[in-house]
Design goal:
The protein is α/β, with parallel strands linked by helices. It has helices at 2-18, 30-41, 55-58, 73-78, 103-107, 124-139, 152-155, 158-174, 188-200, and strands at 21-25, 47-52, 82-86, 113-116, 144-150, 178-183. The chain has a six-stranded parallel sheet, sandwiched between helices.
């Protein structure tokens, strides 16, 4: 019996030793939903913070707007290691109130991994990327940075390709531990697997 409890204690300690603090920017889309769910289901004790433009709408029982990402109340109840945090997302025009203020100090100092899934490929993407990089360097330069971008074939327009490359260059130039990934637009599982392979290797 003593051996059994010692084994359980050892397993629990091992899981806690593997627990990571993971921040996912733009994590209310399909890839973010699958990624946060996969991380939670590993039962390693990960703390997962999703940066989103409107945590109130993202956690509502039903989706109320196509303009904002949504996970839903049921998802968050089932995945209690996942929490939402408002941030400006690179575009203050979409922000209502002041709940986004202080996201850097709340989310980044303890982060082991920062995953950037911000989509859209408008001017918002490089702005959001710049905020993540700048604030990470200020508060936690040792955090692992992961950026997921669609393949050029899916981006099609040269302007979008340029913005995507600018974000990758920003990470590679400024962050000591950065990985830039490419994935096909509708390959949600493949995108998630690429990110999980990196996180599991930490």
């Amino acid at each position: 019996m003593k051996f059994f409890f010692e084994a359980i204690t050892l397993i629990s300690f091992f899981n806690l030793a593997q627990a990571l603090n993971i921040v996912i920017a733009g994590g209310t889309g399909k890839v973010g939903r699958l990624l946060s769910s996969t991380l939670h289901n590993q039962q390693k004790g990960h703390d997962i913070t999703i940066l989103c433009r409107n945590a109130f709408l993202a956690s509502a029982p039903n989706k109320v707007s196509e303009a904002f990402g949504w996970l839903g109340e049921g998802f968050l109840d089932k995945h209690d290691s996942v929490q939402l945090r408002d941030w400006d997302g690179g575009d203050l025009l979409d922000i209502v109130g002041c709940d986004w203020q202080g996201w850097q100090d709340d989310a980044l100092p303890k982060a082991d991994v920062v995953v950037n899934l911000v989509g859209g490929y408008t001017e918002q993407r490089p702005m959001a990327c710049e905020r993540i990089v700048r604030e990470s360097l200020r508060l936690n330069p040792s955090a692992k940075q992961i950026l997921l971008t669609m393949d050029d074939e899916d981006l099609i327009i040269s302007l979008k390709k340029g913005r995507a490359k600018a974000c990758e260059d920003m990470l590679n130039t400024n962050c000591g531990d950065a990985t830039c990934l490419r994935a096909q637009r509708y390959d949600i599982k493949g995108s998630c697997k690429q990110i999980m392979d990196i996180i599991d290797s930490i």
